[in-house]
Design goal:
The structure holds two protein chains of two kinds. By secondary structure, chain A is mostly helical. Helices cover 73% and strands 3% of the residues of chain A. In chain A, the strands form two sheets. In chain A, strands 1-4 form a two-stranded antiparallel sheet. A two-stranded antiparallel ribbon of chain A has the order 2-3. In chain A, a hairpin with a 3-residue loop joins strand 2 (80-83) and strand 3 (87-90). Residues 463-491, 496-501 and 677-701 of chain A have low confidence and may be disordered. By secondary structure, chain B is mainly α. Classes of the chains: A mainly alpha, B mainly alpha. The interface between A and B is large, with 109 and 110 residues.
Chain lengths: 723, 541
């Protein structure tokens, strides 16, 4: 099994290496795209198959009570360190992997969704010049993501953690010659690094407290020591780790990179910025559940940040017109939901939502990609409309996913969202209210997206016309147009790759819509693993039972799954469905019944200030730009000035003083240093030879002077010191 | 082959040290100065020969050697008996790795100069080879007098390399480099003399009694008697060493010679400066200050930690706003060397191991960055960031190599820089979470200045006409970079062999400074009998 796990991880890396070298050889024209496809799809498919039949199935068939762990080699033998309480422990780190229900779940989501999106991308990216490079990056991402979820200690997780960040950087900046993409890539990486700062400090504190970073050792010691021994330090560890999660999973205050990350190609948005990478923070918190359970404070922080992020991002989502931006803010909001789950102690619900969200959000993003593809690179929903006639397969699959995210039973999103809200209600009514409002907003903006895109009349003809009249500049025009409309942050990735080719939108090829269909089916069925007891499931649900081995007993007390009275559960369920229906109905009234959208327009004018605030995302980017970034640069410039004029100024002053002191009779320094300097600056390569002789003689004399001075100094010292 | 290294009568370290000097003399006396091809080939031959001789040192080095076997390949011959001066060579794992770094850098520096140096080639290559003898000798010497000779010898060729083949302000930079280092050396010499007198008759006018143990410059003897030195004398001796080494490192605020020297030096000079010369300072601390002056070292911890952390953040912030690529990389060295010093003064195994590994890592990553900057400089004769943009389109191979070097420098996991920084910070955090927190800011800033540089040079539109026909890296340039890239990945994925090599010297240092460090009870993890370790059977098989 350890070999199988290694293969699962290594295969995508091999694919990345092969395509990477091929991409460097032919950077501008993809050569032999079929070879690229075979390598990239072969690597991901094989990896997924081995993961399923060589890892997960054998593991499950042996029973899941105990994790499977294997260490391949001693990676960082860092030595013996002191541990709080007067102990010493080996701080070495192994390259080791762990298979348990949690990593199995993530493994299946990552490999199979990853494979589907690779298939989709072969269609979506087919016109790109950097085709091979794209798949090299995408495979590299798979490799890093697998390390992240399969690692058996925090360090291997951190390799994957930063590695997926790198791939995200490279893929957001895929159109690197466009400044907005380059900016967005850098922003994503640096924001993530701020989070990683917290993560790595958390890991250090784990070492200092538990003497190791291996999950098994850390959690065993933490669980046996319990609140009394580790309660305080657990709070510090968890808050530091959670800062890392805020970066990776785009939570307040570090969420700002994710909406900009939409500058990357749409399959990237689906795979990395919706289905897998951004859920790494949730995975990490659930993985560390033993530590978080020791600290009610940290859990409260996680739940609060999650709830506030969820509603905050949802309010922005209702005022966006770029289809990918709506989905981006929706992702931020849904990730907030997952953290609510983790924070209120519903760890299984968090992972349940990670899974269902991966299905429907991947479907939505890929559907949006299909729409953009079909509309010749358009991303502004105001220029879409009526697409259900042109792209029926995209339409139906996206409708399914939209219903799923809105939380309508019996689709996947309903079950995971309901479990989260039920748990939140038991934890804090305030968190529940925030969650419920978010659910209503989600249903509203998602159906707003659906109606604006697929219903009414097609509104995009004139833009395509511009593209046709001046095909060379079509991409730029689209960008400029989008910039004008959306204040400079909406950019179509397709506009870079190829230009609009027809007046009429067209359906995408089967390689794309086939994937949509699979994801739509998953969005329908995915929730049935977590059916609650009151509507025919069990308590705990099947999914909760599956993940139970990950929730270790603390001080001998087994993990307790939240349970409420049937009446409460029914009431909460009815309320959450009613809320979703209300949101859908509002979107229907505003954007379907009234083709001219008079009501939303009227509201936007009536509450112009509020609308501007939402449309501009509360100006958070601008505030960060002025304070954090501007402040750092200003401070850096000041330091640079101090360095040149004060610190180095002192050195030069000392030089002058020394020259004045020791060289009273001799003006050698002036003659050779200062003159030499002037001559050096004035000299050209041609006149170099004559000058060099002077320089050299000057150098020798200088050296003699210095050595002479040094010798005299030594003699004096010796005279003084000689016993 | 093994015979050469295992037979104590063959002075293998002397050979490694002086082969470059023989090359230099050969070039000076046997090759006419207009025969450029022959000069280059001879220089490269001797550099490669030296590297080839040095590699088996590692193979035949016993990494488990401790006590008398800590320093191996010993050579001890009386040199000036009346003063107690000995020709004494010997290396432990720390010097071994630094010697290997030096011989590798020597080959790369010479090979990378083939196109860049166009005049006075005979002198240039002879000086580079002499410099290499000086550097290797410094790492081998176990006699203070001998050490000081090599230390000073090293200065002269570097001075000429900057002063003759450097940029427009080369003289200013060269003299600044020279005087700065020299003034530090003088203070270091005073400290050496103080030790020397203490071992003999003491220093009467300061009322410091000596051990009356005769005249000796033997470094290892001072390792033994370090704890006998009274704390106040230790303090003054430490201060002298501190100035000598801190200038060389360079630590904030003694760093201002570095950006000037780097910017003006030719590419090979910058590479050697960054890869090896800066390590002289950190090596000096490890070899002399820590084991000989344990009390003073402990007392100095807060001060050095403070300066190191300031250096880490300051260097990174100043890097952020540089307009010249080389200056940016130079200031990043201030930040990186801050990490090295910080880890060292954590005074525990993690910090010291990380610190020593990071010396090597910095040589590899920053060396590679200087080589890379040199490559575009040779094509465009400018290093201003604003002159570039969009190079990824024109030079994809170059862009890839630069990205790897930048990622290595910013400490991306699975590359070498991460292993060093992580281990350092692990050690530092083990002493104080607050120090670790401040130092970690440097990691965030490291990503910021390198990625911003990368964006401005390689991404964005390729709109400067001067860049639109730049050729990608050629075979020779690739050959200078590939070994460094391999090392980055190797150390990132499998650093164990490097850690094993320095394990004994590090434990030795820790015990010298804190004799009771290891006297604690091992922590047991309940219910998990080392389950994550290989010896435990796999549950499911």
């Amino acid at each position: 099994m350890s070999t199988a796990i290694l293969l699962v991880i290594i295969l995508p890396a091999a694919g990345a290496a092969i395509n990477g070298f091929r991409a460097i050889k032919n950077p501008h024209t993809p050569k032999n795209k079929s070879v690229t496809n075979v390598v990239t799809l072969g690597a991901t498919l094989l990896s997924a198959l081995i993961a399923t039949f060589g890892v997960v199935m054998p593991y499950v068939s042996h029973g899941t009570a105990q994790p499977f762990e294997h260490s391949y080699y001693n990676w960082i033998p860092s030595g013996m360190g002191h541990v709080a309480g007067g102990w010493i422990s080996n701080f070495g780190v192994d390259f080791s992997v762990r298979i348990d229900p949690l990593s199995c779940t993530m493994l299946m989501v990552v490999t199979w969704i990853g494979f589907l999106i690779h298939v989709y991308a072969t269609g979506y990216m087919s016109h790109e010049k950097g085709y091979t490079r794209f798949f090299a990056y995408l495979n590299l991402f798979m490799f890093m993501m697998l390390l992240l979820v399969l690692g058996a200690n925090y360090l291997v997780m951190f390799v994957g953690w930063e590695g997926v960040g790198l791939c995200s950087y490279l893929l957001i900046g895929f159109y690197y010659d466009k400044n907005f993409a380059a900016d967005a890539g850098k922003k994503a990486f640096i924001t993530n690094r701020i989070g990683d700062f917290g993560f790595i400090l958390g890991v250090f504190l784990i070492f200092n407290t538990f003497g190791s970073a291996d999950y098994t050792k850390v959690f065993a010691l933490a669980a046996s020591g319990g609140h009394a021994q580790f309660g305080g330090v657990a709070t510090a560890i968890c808050l530091l780790l959670f800062l890392g999660a805020c970066g990776k999973s785009a939570q307040i205050p570090l969420y700002v990179w994710l909406p900009d990350a939409m500058a990357g190609p749409t399959p990237v948005s689906a795979l990395i910025h919706a289905a897998t990478m951004v859920t790494a923070g949730v995975y990490m918190v659930v993985r560390s559940n033993v530590l978080f359970r020791l600290s009610p404070t940290a859990m409260a922080v996680v739940a609060t940040i999650g709830a506030v992020t969820a509603i905050f991002a949802a309010t922005i989502g209702i005022a966006q017109n770029d289809i990918k931006k709506v989905l981006a803010y929706s992702t931020v909001s849904q990730l907030g939901y997952m953290f609510v789950a983790a924070g209120v102690g519903a760890y299984t619900a968090a992972i349940f939502h990670v899974m269902t969200h991966a299905f429907f959000k991947a479907c939505l993003f890929l559907g949006a990609g299909s729409v953009i593809h079909g509309c010749g690179g358009e991303q502004d929903m105001r220029k879409m409309g009526g697409l259900r006639k042109y792209m029926p397969r995209t339409h139906w699959t996206m409708l399914v996913a939209t219903i799923a995210i809105a939380g309508i039973p019996p689709l996947a999103g309903f079950f995971s969202k309901d479990e989260i809200l039920a748990n939140a209600f038991g934890y804090s009514k305030l968190i529940w209210i925030l969650g419920a409002i978010t659910a209503a907003l989600t249903a509203f903006y998602m159906f707003r997206l659906y109606f604006m895109t697929f219903h009414g009349q097609y509104r995009g003809a004139h833009v395509v016309g511009v593209g046709e009249s001046e095909p060379e500049h079509a991409g730029h025009d689209l960008i400029a147009g989008a910039k004008h409309l959306d204040h400079g942050d909406a950019h179509s990735d397709k506009a870079n790759g190829h230009h609009a080719h027809s007046h009429e939108p067209h359906e995408s090829p089967w390689s794309m819509t086939g994937v949509l269909a699979v994801l739509a089916v998953l969005s329908i069925l995915g929730g049935f693993v977590g059916v609650p007891a009151i509507i025919g499931g069990s308590h705990p649900t099947a999914f909760q039972k599956w993940l139970e081995p990950v929730l270790l007993p603390i001080e001998g007390h087994a993990f307790h799954f939240h349970e409420a009275s049937h009446a409460t559960e029914w009431a909460l369920m009815i309320i959450s469905v009613a809320i979703a229906v209300a949101g859908i109905f509002l979107a229907y009234r505003f954007y379907f019944r009234d083709a001219a959208w008079t009501t939303p327009k009227r509201i936007a004018t009536r509450f112009a200030l509020l609308y501007r605030l939402l449309e501009n995302k509360y100006y958070v980017d601008e505030i960060y730009g002025k304070t954090v970034i501007g402040g750092t640069l200003l401070f850096s410039r000041a330091l640079s000035w101090i360095d040149a004029n004060i610190i180095d100024g002192l050195v030069n002053l000392m030089r002058h003083a020394t020259v004045g002191l020791f060289g009273l009779g001799s003006n050698l320094f002036d003659k050779y240093v200062i003159d030499g300097l002037v001559n050096g600056a004035a000299s050209t390569a041609g006149a170099g030879s004559a000058m060099l002789r002077r320089v050299q003689s000057g150098v020798v004399q200088n050296y003699a002077l210095i050595m002479g001075g040094g010798l005299i100094l030594l003699a004096v010292v010796y005279l003084f010191l000689k016993p | 082959m093994g015979f050469l290294y295992q037979n104590l009568s063959i002075p293998i370290l002397t050979l490694v040290t002086f082969v470059p000097l023989i090359g230099a003399l050969w070039i000076i006396f046997f090759i006419r100065k207009d025969n450029e091809q022959s000069i280059k080939r001879t220089a490269l031959f001797f550099a490669i020969a030296d590297f080839v001789i040095s590699v088996p040192l590692w193979i035949y080095f016993d990494v488990n050697g401790k006590g008398d076997r800590l320093f191996q390949f010993r050579e001890v011959v009386d040199w000036i008996p009346s003063l107690g001066v000995k020709y004494s060579f010997g290396i432990d794992g720390i010097s071994l790795l630094l010697i290997l770094l030096t011989t590798l850098t020597g080959v790369i520096a010479i090979y990378s100069s083939f196109a860049a140096i166009t005049f006075r080639q005979k002198e240039y290559y002879a000086l580079l080879l002499m410099l290499q003898t000086g550097m290797i000798g410094t790492f081998c010497a176990l006699d203070f007098f001998l050490f000081y000779v090599f230390w000073e010898v090293m200065l002269v060729p570097m001075y000429f390399v900057i002063g003759i083949w450097g940029g427009p302000r080369r003289l200013y930079a060269a003299i600044k480099f020279f005087l700065y280092t020299l003034s530090g050396s003088v203070l270091m010499l005073l400290s050496i003399l103080a030790l020397y007198f203490f071992n003999d008759g003491g220093i009467p006018f300061l009322n410091i009694g000596g051990l009356n143990a005769g005249l000796s410059f033997d470094v290892l003897r001072y390792h033994e008697i370090g704890h006998l030195i009274p704390p106040n004398l230790q303090f003054w001796i430490f201060l002298g060493f501190f100035f000598g080494f801190a200038i060389k490192v360079p630590m904030f605020p003694f760093h201002t010679w570095l950006p000037d020297a780097h910017v003006e030096a030719p590419t090979a000079g910058s590479v050697i400066l960054a890869a090896v010369l800066l390590k002289m300072g950190t090596y000096g601390f490890v070899r002399f200050a820590l084991p000989i002056l344990p009390d003073a070292t402990q007392q100095a911890v807060p001060w050095i930690v403070f300066l190191s952390i300031v250096g880490i953040i300051y260097g990174a912030l100043v890097s952020l706003v540089q307009k010249d690529m080389k200056k940016l990389v130079a200031y990043s060295s201030v930040s990186h060397l801050g990490f090295v010093m910080l880890g060292m003064f954590a005074l525990n195994p993690m910090g010291l191991r990380g610190s020593i590994l990071q010396m090597i890592n910095h040589g590899i990553s920053t060396g590679a960055l200087f080589l890379l900057v040199g490559i575009v400089y040779e094509r465009r004769h400018t290093r201003l960031i604003s002159e570039y943009g969009g190079l990824a389109k024109q030079m994809p191979m170059y862009a890839t190599l630069f990205l790897i070097a930048a990622l290595s420098s910013m400490g991306l996991p699975a590359l070498n820089g991460f292993i060093g920084e992580f281990t350092i910070l692990l050690g530092v955090a083990n002493r104080s979470m607050v120090w670790a927190a401040f130092a970690s800011i440097g990691i965030v800033l490291g990503a910021a200045y390198l990625l911003w540089l990368y964006q401005r040079v390689f991404w964005g539109p390729l709109d400067n006409p001067a860049n639109q026909s730049l050729p990608d890296v050629n075979r020779r340039e690739l050959l200078t970079l590939v070994p460094l890239m391999i090392l980055m990945v190797w150390i990132g994925i499998a650093p164990k062999i490097f850690f094993d090599t320095i394990e004994q010297p590090v434990d030795y240092l820790v015990r010298k400074v804190d004799p009771h460090y290891f006297d604690r009870k091992p922590l047991m993890h309940p219910g998990a009998p080392a389950a994550a370790h290989p010896e435990v059977a796999e549950i499911h098989q």
